[in-house]
Design a protein that fits this description.
mainly alpha; Cytochrome p450; two-stranded antiparallel ribbon; 13 helices; 2 strands; globular; iron ion binding; monooxygenase activity; heme; oxidoreductase; Cyt_P450_E_grp-I
């Protein structure tokens, strides 16, 4: 709009200038070549236009800044902000963990502060009162999820339910998930799954005890519980348990468990280009390449599962109870976009 205004002013200026010159010449009944319409001095015109542009730009910046200052007070910001990288250098300390660094900053600057991490402004809250304020009182303001490399490559470009932006699609998926996965009726229907998985782990522990001549045995509790949780989730969502009896001998079990662990690790990985976008083409720590590889493997695995469910539904032969993928397939069509919705929601 600035450019359009300048063009209008310039045309009006030239028109008035030429009109005045021609009128004076005709009134004297003589036309001189020196009095023919011509453009004003170019340096003077350029300087005038530049001053106008600068004035309107400064006026806009002043108005926006004043409006922001009047809407909400500025949160405390730690000193030491550097050009381009901002406060990123404050988060890299080999002697301390990341949560310890945030805790030390919170002790100095309060439960809510702003950090400039590269090109991103980040709000850091470190008290339950502030967390409650963000996720209950002001939940609509925080309803959107940030877009980054992980959501782009691992979450089907932010279409996965847990990473989708707030809108009609997300509300519809939340409604389906709440009714078909988290309702009391559905949780009660999964009681048999929980009982069978817990029973399988108890039998596995008993077998280990017997094999050790009924003497105490060492257990990897973390591995045991992770396998239990993983199997309960996969059987609830896809109707298939991959890790049985604490063993990962099956190739499909190893592949699925490995891809899932890699995806969870990459979702929490630090990607330089998320904060310095101009470095994306370098892929400095190799996370983007790993995300693309894991995303391809997961897409193949979940695609096979969806195709198997479609085949069983068409044949009329169903192994076991209906699961979450069956519910999703009953709500969507048979095209490629429908499969994408099922995969993103199930994952």
């Amino acid at each position: 709009h600035y450019l359009a205004l300048v063009i209008v002013i310039r045309r009006q200026f030239i028109f008035n200038y030429n009109k005045r010159r021609c009128t004076n010449a005709c009134s004297n009944n003589q036309i001189d070549m020196a009095l023919l319409p011509r453009f004003p001095d170019f340096p003077l015109l350029s300087a005038t236009l530049f001053c106008l542009l600068l004035f309107f730009k400064l006026l806009t910046l002043f108005t926006v800044k004043r409006r922001r200052a009047g809407s909400a007070p500025d949160l405390p910001t730690p000193p030491g902000r550097l050009p381009i990288i901002g406060h990123l250098h404050l988060l890299f300390d080999k002697s301390r963990s990341l949560h310890e660094i945030y805790g030390e900053l919170a002790d100095k600057y309060g439960p809510a502060m702003m950090l400039q991490l590269g090109f991103r402004r980040v709000l850091v809250v470190s008290s339950w009162e502030m967390a409650k304020e963000c996720f209950t009182t002001s939940d609509l303001a925080f309803s959107n999820r940030p877009r980054n490399s992980a959501t782009k490559h691992l979450a089907y470009d932010s279409t996965m339910f847990g990473f989708a932006p707030y809108g009609d699609y997300w509300r519809q998926m939340r409604k389906i998930t709440t009714l078909e996965m988290l309702s009391n009726r559905r949780i009660e229907s999964f009681k048999q799954v929980r009982e069978s998985e817990i029973g399988a782990r108890v039998n596995h522990i008993h077998t280990l005890w017997q094999n050790n001549q009924q003497r105490p045995v060492k257990l990897e509790v973390r591995k045991l519980l992770s396998e239990l949780t993983f199997n309960m989730v996969t059987r609830t969502v896809a109707g298939v348990g991959y890790v049985v009896g604490g063993s990962e001998d099956d190739s499909k079990a190893r592949e699925t468990a490995h891809c899932t662990r890699e995806m969870l690790d990459l979702l929490a990985a630090f990607v330089v280009s998320d904060f310095l976008p101009f470095l994306e083409f370098l892929d400095i720590n190799g996370c983007i390449a790993a995300m693309k590889r894991v995303a391809g493997n997961l897409d193949v695995l979940i695609g096979r599962c969806v195709a198997e469910h479609r085949r069983q539904n068409l044949s009329g032969f169903r192994e076991g109870d209906h699961d979450f993928i069956d519910v999703l397939l009953s709500l969507v069509g048979d095209d490629t976009d429908a499969d994408m919705v099922v995969k993103t929601t199930a994952l």
